[in-house]
């Protein structure tokens, strides 16, 4: 018996909420809402007393699984590893299917975001690349070609 009903969202804690939001909006996600959360609920769930976060919820155009970006107002954020590679333990990447991989990569490059490696092709079915976004977030972009 499964306890999971559906995959709701992925959460990422960031320092610059506006910059990271703009990055994902540039990829085509839409802002669903923005709010502050604090109080007993947040303190209990995250285990950090007297915490306060600002949250932006983003959704893909197809209405699928959402992305939650959170910035801690208090306490201060703890730095992560901004140059993490794919073999570092932890959340590896957030993945999106795109219509035109090269156009997406080129557009992100105009904003200063580059490839982690290169554009690869898997069994004549997918073209895929990792792009390192703001704060070291790795985004996997994939285009179905077959």
Which features does this protein show?
single chain; 146 residues; alpha/beta; 2,3-Dihydroxybiphenyl 1,2-Dioxygenase, domain 1; 8 strands; 19% helix
Short summary of the structure?
With 146 residues, this protein is α/β, with parallel strands linked by helices. The chain has helices at residues 17-27, 40-46, 101-110; strands at residues 9-13, 30-38, 52-59, 66-74, 94-97, 120-122, 126-132, 138-144.
Structural summary, described in words:
- Residues 6-144 form the VOC domain.
- This is VOC family protein.
- It comes from Geodermatophilus maliterrae.
- Keywords: Metal-binding.
- It holds the Pfam family Glyoxalase_4.
- The protein has 146 residues and is α/β, with parallel strands linked by helices.
- It folds into two domains: 9-74, 2,3-Dihydroxybiphenyl 1,2-Dioxygenase, domain 1, CATH 3.10.180; 94-144, 2,3-Dihydroxybiphenyl 1,2-Dioxygenase, domain 1, CATH 3.10.180.10.
- Helix content is 19%, strand content 36%.
- The protein is built from three helices and eight strands.
- It has helices spanning 17-27, 40-46, 101-110; strands at 9-13, 30-38, 52-59, 66-74, 94-97, 120-122, 126-132, 138-144.
- Strands 1-4-3-2 form a four-stranded mixed beta sheet, sandwiched between helices. Strands 5-8-7-6 form a four-stranded mixed beta sheet, covered by helices on one side.
- Strand 3 (52-59) and strand 4 (66-74) form a beta hairpin.
- The protein is globular, with a radius of gyration of 17 Å.
- The model has no long low-confidence stretch (mean pLDDT 92).
């Amino acid at each position: 018996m499964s306890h999971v009903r559906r995959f709701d969202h992925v959460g990422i804690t960031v320092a610059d909420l506006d910059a990271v939001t703009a990055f994902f909006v540039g990829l085509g996600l839409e802002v669903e809402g923005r709010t502050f959360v604090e109080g007993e609920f947040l303190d209990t769930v995250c285990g950090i007393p007297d915490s306060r976060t600002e949250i932006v919820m983003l959704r893909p155009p197809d209405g699928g699984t959402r992305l939650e970006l959170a910035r801690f107002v208090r306490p201060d954020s703890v730095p992560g590893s901004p140059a993490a590679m794919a073999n570092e333990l932890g959340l590896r990447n957030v993945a999106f299917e795109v219509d035109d991989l090269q156009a997406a990569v080129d557009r992100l490059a105009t904003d200063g975001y580059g490839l982690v490696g290169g554009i690869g092709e898997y069994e004549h079915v997918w073209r895929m690349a990792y792009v390192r976004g703001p704060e070291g977030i790795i985004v996997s972009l994939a285009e179905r070609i077959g």
